[in-house]
Amino acid sequence: AKADGRGTFRFFEPAMDEVVRRKQELRVGLRTALDRGELELHFQPLVGIWTGEVTCFETLLRWQHPGRGMISPAEFIPVAEETGLIMRMGEWALRTACKEAARWPDAIRVAVNLSPVQFRNPGLVQAVANALEEARLDAGRLELEITESVLLQDDHTNFAVLHELSRLGVRIALDDFGTGFSSLAYLLRFPIDKIKIDRSFVTGLPDRRESKAVIRAVVSMSRSLGISVTAEGVETAGQLKALRQLGCNDAQGYLLSRPVPAAEVLALIGQPPWA
Ligand code: C2E
Ligand code: CA
Ligand code: CA
Ligand code: CA
């Protein structure tokens, strides 16, 4: 109970109390998760929209909590960002993903998500170079997914870092496109190789005219800049068909495949369930 200053007492909503407690539990558990081997990487394919061939796998973190089961990255990444643990976790994901990708066919890239917080690490470019070197992976096979906020919180540092990464030969993908505030001007200034259209636009297909208009505009703009376009969260055949007509290059989503453990990647390439 908490005094509200007028001599009466109010009780925390039990639900709120539970949220706070769970967050604290995650904070504590996350500190040791990496060393205890509770984190693993899953991989979801990006598929050429006309060829049906896998072009890339996106790396997605999974936390197998001993008492709570699988915890979603949507829940624990923000906690890792708040506590700074994302630095070590992100670097581990990067190194492990590069090592996995070195076992795949050369034509297939690996994408790794970078938190905006990782851009505060002055050693980021070196860490990427080290991960490639250690795995003996060609820089051209690594794609780094960043969000629009990385472009916006620019004090010239992120600008320089992205250009250094690009100079290493890695590709830069702009994730969740359309949910932030970046404009054409950003796409001209920054070395962007791929745009990933957020699922919220794909969900409106094939019927919503607004969704189609947005995707059509993104595709035409990207095409003139030589940027590749991936549609995220493709769940139905109707959406896939519409995305083909709209001119997207790749599709990613449950219709094609859910994220799979590392051990299932090669089988997925050999026998694609969507073919
Ligand atoms: P994201 O980068 O936008 O990743 C796509 C998310 O959409 C993934 O969720 C994926 O499993 C999910 N998804 C894929 N296809 C479909 C679909 O057809 N329908 C629906 N409803 N969802 C689909 P996940 O794995 O839960 O990851 C959530 C978010 O957590 C990611 O969103 C990303 O922002 C973050 N995340 C995951 N792994 C990492 C990581 O290693 N580092 C960082 N910094 N963030 C990560
Ligand atoms: Ca992503
Ligand atoms: Ca995304
Ligand atoms: Ca997202």
From TrEMBL:
Domain EAL: start-end pairs: 23-273
Protein name: EAL domain-containing protein
Organism from which the protein derives: Teichococcus oryzae
Classification lineage: Bacteria, Pseudomonadati, Pseudomonadota, Alphaproteobacteria, Acetobacterales
Shown segment, full-protein numbering: 550 to 824 of 829
